[in-house]
Amino acid sequence: MVREHLAEMVDQGLVTPTGLISHGRGEAFDYLMGERTIPPALEAERAAAAFLLRAKKPIVCVNGNSIALEPKGLIALAKCIPAKMEVNIFHRTEERMRMLIEYMESQGADGILGRDPDARIPNLTSDRALCTKEGIFDSDVIVVPIEDGDRAEALIAMGKIVISIDLNPLSRTSKVASVPISDEISRAVENIARFVGELRGKDDEIDSIIKHFSAVRTRRDTIGYICDSLMSEFKEN
Amino acid sequence: MVREHLAEMVDQGLVTPTGLISHGRGEAFDYLMGERTIPPALEAERAAAAFLLRAKKPIVCVNGNSIALEPKGLIALAKCIPAKMEVNIFHRTEERMRMLIEYMESQGADGILGRDPDARIPNLTSDRALCTKEGIFDSDVIVVPIEDGDRAEALIAMGKIVISIDLNPLSRTSKVASVPISDEISRAVENIARFVGELRGKDDEIDSIIKHFSAVRTRRDTIGYICDSLMSEFKEN
Q: What residues does each domain of chain A span?
């Protein structure tokens, strides 16, 4: 069902054909994790909520695949923090930007940024670098679902807290992210939003979560979990 | 480059959009194996050559993705055995069958089967069951690159030796195959063709390879290899 929906989004011009391949790579990792949120991902989602509540200028960044997969969940997450939203895409055309923004507005988004970029992410070539000053450029904590590695690195180099949602725990994005979440986007944004609600106002707990979170440990636990599940079929024999 | 080529093949109608997602899933496993032929895959490729040399009616079965990815290698493999070739696709239309067969002919294939099916694979619903009697139906050893699980199971139920080429060692196809090869299609067909050349006429060696090959061991070794490589990043710490 998700696959047919994405194929339709390609016909409409919102998702690129190479975006479908990238989705398939994610599917493989989701499959290895049993298509559910595994404990290290849940811990990272709770940490993401803590960082977002502590942020001065939080933002949720969206692209073609994330908009096609979970527009309403992303909007709900941005509203509950509250955070700004900005569209940023790898294969940029003005037409595609317009369509993506209009699609998000049709799903309930207000004031979504990205159509009129007035800043650039340093150290990043191509149109991926284009962003708005009031949005991505000035943000301190940024959620990047399904991000490419170059851009994730460039955002880290700007000193931002980068929260990635990327099913592949070995991707460059996951490796550089401040909070790497290896979970399917719909489950991830729903969990983060729930933790935002639970943690709001609990400053000591937020401090403690931020202090004890480790991106390396999260990734190691995620990969360990995948290996255990891979080998389980043979351990029974 | 492969991704752009596949996207173009979608525009031409040879590959389906969901075929791109399926390619992405394979890419993830290729990545986990370091994008090279790992030892258990090489052993399976050698066994595949032995089974193909021993076959009375060998056939190489091709679909949209395999034709888009490696037409020449598949044709070279079929010619060197020699084996028949037949096109069989999941999303069948007469137009798409015609295009795929003409594309294979433009790449050098002769007498490729599939346009005029006169038999059905038992226990398989939908047009995937359509095949030719002289080709897939009567074959004893069948190479199926990038096959769906239902069809692989139905071919096994017919008593055939099924050689699968599927990067995912956990897929249903890999689990049911007589010879599951977890390798990228271009590398796999090149390796099998080389082993066919090396083993031809060496009957004792062919017998020994067939006798000692184990599909379960191959899959367990493949998965073990993937886990070791997944964990290696953390073992250094």
A: 2-234
- Cβ of residue A168 closer than 8 Å to a chain B Cβ: yes
Using a CB–CB cutoff of 8 Å, tell me whether B225 touches chain A: no
Output the tens digit of pLDDT for each of chain A's 237 residues: 888 899 899 888 899 888 899 999 999 999 889 899 999 999 999 999 999 999 999 999 999 999 999 999 999 999 999 999 999 998 888 999 999 999 999 999 999 999 999 999 999 988 889 999 999 999 999 999 998 899 999 999 999 999 999 999 999 999 999 999 999 999 999 999 999 999 999 999 999 999 999 999 999 999 999 888 888 877 765
Chain B CB contacts of A23 under 8 Å are 21, 24
Please tell me if residue A173 touches chain B, with a CB cutoff of 8 Å.
no
DSSP string, A206-234: HHHHHHH--HHHHHHHHHHHHHHHHHHHH
Interchain CB distance below 8 Å, B17 and A20: yes
Contacts of A227 in chain B (CB under 8 A): 227, 230-231
Owner of token pair 């450029």: A137
Q: A87 vs A53, A108, A113, A137, B44, CA distance in Å?
A: 22, 15, 6, 13, 46
Q: What class, spelled out in words, does domain B2-234 have in CATH? A: alpha beta
The reply to whether ipTM tops 0.85 is no
**A25: which chain B residues are within 8 Å (Cβ-Cβ)?**
24-25, 27-28, 31
